[in-house]
């Protein structure tokens, strides 16, 4: 496994790839929301599904590096390892990231089934509501994830 990342921290390349993706995901989701606002629903769907699939890959890379790679060794030398700050930020991150990912996946699956019908339809208000919650959750996940990355691998 590659042990040196490209962001200049102790993280390996897989953690760095996941970090870059998760830092950029909210920006991609912002673009997807713009597409929906412009009634470009097919492009909105393609971008959302693409970002969601990339998120799954990024989570797998991150988890693989943590469980089977060198990530644990790299963050155990952090000055924040084992502190209440790290534990608290990690708890907040998980409390936001897991429900966001579940809501995003369920919304994508439900929307995929309904998409071929006339748009906007009866599902649109719920889709918009859950889409915005997912959008906010993704931003919070990004902010807390970047914080964890910095505390774990840069400090």
List the SSEs and their pairings.
Blueprint: H1 13-37, H2 41-68, H3 71-75, H4 84-114, H5 124-154
Helix pairs in contact: 1-2, 1-5, 2-4, 4-5
Q: Could you list some keywords that capture this structure?
A:
mainly alpha; 77% helix
Count of distinct structural domains: 1
Tell me the radius of gyration. 17 Å
Provide a count of the helices: 5
DSSP strand (E) fraction? under 5%
Q: What does the largest sheet look like? A: none
* Contiguous runs where pLDDT drops below 50 for at least 5 residues: none
Number of E strands: 0
SSE succession: HHHHH
Mean pLDDT: 91
Cα shape: elongated
Structural class: mainly alpha
Span between termini: 23 Å
Helix content: over 70%
Structural write-up:
- It is a single chain.
- The chain is mainly alpha-helical and 155 residues long.
- The protein has one domain.
- The protein is built from 5 helices and no strands.
- Helix 1 runs antiparallel to helix 5, helix 2 packs antiparallel against helix 4 and helix 4 runs antiparallel to helix 5.
- The chain is elongated.
Give me a quick take on this structure.
The protein has one domain.
């Amino acid at each position: 496994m590659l042990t040196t990342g490209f962001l200049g921290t102790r993280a390996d390349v897989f953690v760095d790839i996941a970090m870059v993706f998760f830092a950029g995901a909210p920006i991609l989701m912002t673009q997807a929301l713009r597409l929906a606002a412009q009634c470009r629903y097919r492009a909105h769907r393609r971008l959302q599904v693409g970002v969601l699939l990339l998120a799954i890959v990024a989570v797998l890379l991150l988890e693989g590096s943590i469980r089977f790679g060198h990530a644990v060794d790299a963050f155990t030398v952090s000055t924040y390892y084992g502190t209440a700050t790290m534990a608290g930020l990690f708890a907040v991150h998980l409390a936001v990231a897991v429900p966001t990912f579940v809501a995003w996946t369920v919304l994508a699956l439900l929307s995929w089934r309904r998409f071929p019908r006339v748009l906007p339809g009866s599902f649109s208000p719920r889709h918009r509501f859950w889409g915005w919650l997912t959008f906010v959750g993704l931003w919070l996940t990004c902010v807390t994830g970047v914080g964890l990355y910095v505390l774990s691998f840069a400090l």
